[in-house]
């Protein structure tokens, strides 16, 4: 792309950005992985949410997780409106494990989404972020008595039954809160194994999540006889980073066989586009597939809930790093940055591939090994990613890091977890500050 021009790389929503126009340049292709609305300025640098990357890095330091707030809001609306257009009695609940920080809860609650929480911690953060208790869906394969009590006390709309002990505990808790009735769903394991990383499949026989169909029927029968637990319906979630619609459609058919209910929660799982080659269904294709089957097999009056996590937040996030050192070792060039598996475990845990750019000179270059600073050879951010003559001090941007990187960030090697910075219309605001060395000692008692 010639310098001196500002290129708006991403067309406005809801155009299909997963299929870039034929003939687009390598720079446009790369920039097209960044949040919608990202531009490459006249100086060749990325501008995210109207904010120049170098200014962001100077102000907030690196590593930093940058979130384009407009992109996040647009995605939330695209999901909520898309589902409501197809199935009016519906709700999108953000699976908050994908990005559990108060700032994100606040934005997505503000957009009217419900929130899926999977622990007392996420429940606490959701409430602090302004979530409407009625829109909470409370998950967990091992919810403790304390967590169930927190959910009931908060007035959570739905608690998802994952085992028979959940029923016993809830019965006990509700017996103490006279007059209170609690809406519940039964999580069904439909024996569907989608094509994704084994660690993130959940719907297959042998999964630790949910109840196989026969047991689900037993739980349903028991809940129908309960005075205090109101069986609202069933739940299914078959896995994450799923790149075709077929497993979702099969899951809807599977839960329909359990009978007629007021609520069907169809889970999350739609994949994100991390690399040029990924071709996930668009939100619209996904909803068409889901609702297409729902129209055929679910009661017309039922409420449909979905729980997107990754596909809600992944594309809105960008990780910024500084190059610390460049090492030429035989045929390989190692470009080591000031972050790594402390702030992005997706590569080490799931082998996820990420692209990357020199944020101030987007595009071009020869393949290098982009590595982190942690004491492990598996600490790689991207193996074989082209970067144009990277040098110490260069700013590196890794796109599509909005999902699960914040949640899985850690203090390996005493790493201080990075800040989260929201950018919108040229203004930036930190919603999480960087950890300090003092923070690292906060819980130490000696
Ligand atoms: N609903 C339930 C009940 C879930 O367990 C999950 C994700 C979701 C919804 C959202 O799925 P999504 O739309 O994000 O695919 N730690 C892994 C991801 C684990 C996902 C677990 N459950 C990672 O970093 O890739």
For the secondary structure, the number of strands is 22
In angstroms, what is the radius of gyration? 23 Å
- What percentage of residues falls in helices of 4 or more residues? 25-40%
CATH fold-level name of the largest domain = TIM Barrel
**What is the count of distinct domains?**
2
Report the major sheet.
9 strands, mixed
Question: What ligands can be seen in this structure?
Answer: ligand LLP
- The CATH H-level homologous superfamily of the largest domain: Alanine racemase
Question: Roughly what is the average pLDDT, rounded to an integer?
Answer: 94
Count the helices. How many? 13
Shape: globular
Features:
446 residues, alpha/beta, Lyase, Ornithine Decarboxylase, Chain A, domain 1, TIM Barrel, 2 domains, nine-stranded mixed beta sheet, eight-stranded parallel β-barrel, globular, disordered N terminus, binds ligand LLP
């Amino acid at each position: 792309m010639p310098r001196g021009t500002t290129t708006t790389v991403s067309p406005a929503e809801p155009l299909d950005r997963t299929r870039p126009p034929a003939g687009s340049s390598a720079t446009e292709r790369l920039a097209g992985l960044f949040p919608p609305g990202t531009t490459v300025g006249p100086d060749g640098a990325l501008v995210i949410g109207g904010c120049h990357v170098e200014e962001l890095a100077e102000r907030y330091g690196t590593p930093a997780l940058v979130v384009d707030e407009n992109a996040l809001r647009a995605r939330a609306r695209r999901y909520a409106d898309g589902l409501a257009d197809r199935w009016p009695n519906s709700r999108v609940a953000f699976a908050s494990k994908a990005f559990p920080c108060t700032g994100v809860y606040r934005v997505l609650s503000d957009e009217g989404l419900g929130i899926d929480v999977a622990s007392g911690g996420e429940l606490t953060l959701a409430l602090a972020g302004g979530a409407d208790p009625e829109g909470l869906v409370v998950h967990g394969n091992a919810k403790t008595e304390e967590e169930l009590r927190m959910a009931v006390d908060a007035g959570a709309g739905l608690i998802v039954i994952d085992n028979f002990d959940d029923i016993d505990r809830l019965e006990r808790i509700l017996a103490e809160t006279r007059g209170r009735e609690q809406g519940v769903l039964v999580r069904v394991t439909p024996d569907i194994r989608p094509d994704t990383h084994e660690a993130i499949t959940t719907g297959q026989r042998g999964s630790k999540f949910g109840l196989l169909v026969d047991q689900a029927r037993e739980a349903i029968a028991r809940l129908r006889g309960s005075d205090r637990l109101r069986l609202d319906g069933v739940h299914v979630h078959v896995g994450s980073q799923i790149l075709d619609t077929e497993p979702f459609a099969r899951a809807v058919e599977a839960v329909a066989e359990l009978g007629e209910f007021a609520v069907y929660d169809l889970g999350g799982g739609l994949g994100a586009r991390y690399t040029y080659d990924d071709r996930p269904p668009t939100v619209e294709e996904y909803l068409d597939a889901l609702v297409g089957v729902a129209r055929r097999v679910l009661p017309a009056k039922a409420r449909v809930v979905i729980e997107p996590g990754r596909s809600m937040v992944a594309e809105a996030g960008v990780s910024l790093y500084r190059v610390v050192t460049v090492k030429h070792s035989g045929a390989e060039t190692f470009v080591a940055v000031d972050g790594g598996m402390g702030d992005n475990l997706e590569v080490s845990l799931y082998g996820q591939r990420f692209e990357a750019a020199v944020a101030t000179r987007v595009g071009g270059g020869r393949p290098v090994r982009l590595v982190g600073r942690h004491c492990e050879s598996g600490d790689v951010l991207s193996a074989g990613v082209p970067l144009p003559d990277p040098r110490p001090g260069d700013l590196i941007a890794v796109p599509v890091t909005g999902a699960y990187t914040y949640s899985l960030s850690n203090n390996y090697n005493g790493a201080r977890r990075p800040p989260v910075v929201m950018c919108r219309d040229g203004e930036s605001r930190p919603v999480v500050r960087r950890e300090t060395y003092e923070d690292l000692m906060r819980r130490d008692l000696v």
